[in-house]
Amino acid sequence: MKNFFKLLILLALASCTSAPKTEEQQPAADTTQKTVAAPAASTANTVVGAWTITATISDGVKGNCRECPTINFNSDGTAIINKPKGDVVNLKWEMNGDKIKVTTAENTNPEGLFADVNYSMTFTQNKDSVKLEMVQAEKKYSYVLNR
User: CB of 70 within 8 A of CB of 51?
Assistant: First the structure.
């Protein structure tokens, strides 16, 4: 009996359409991505704001976040990492061209997020989002941030 009702529901859903079909084709959505190194004059304005840390890459191996922290880069050169469980890490940052140096603003940074090093930045503009990859070449790792 349950299977019969499931079949009826599936048939009812399959017969529903949300819009009438027309012969005109809609243009395909623009899914192109544009990757650029951050220009020196506008980098600070581009970095300022809230970002979600979605992944890390270490020696070419990408690890996606399960509980992704957010980082808010403030225009005064400070930043705050908010972790999902409520922990907060305070940072300082400064720009030099397409490079950003991030330093810990306090003695407690147990996980070493953005541990006192310089990063190269690459922005990728998607249709509805921006991806920022912060690469630390000497230690062969990077952070992937999105907003």
Answer: yes
Estimate the share of the chain in helix, then strand, then coil, as percent rounded to the nearest 5. Answer: 15, 45, 45
Average pLDDT of span 69-78: 94
pLDDT class of 107 with cuts at 50, 70, 90: low
With the C-alpha atoms ordered 139, 109, 111, 43, is the resulting torsion angle positive or negative? negative
CA distances from 125 to 30, 33, 130, 136 (A): 12, 6, 5, 21
Across the range 86-104, mean pLDDT stands at 90
CA distances for 80 relative to 13, 96, 120, angstroms:
47, 20, 20
Return the bridge partners of 53, or none. Answer: 145
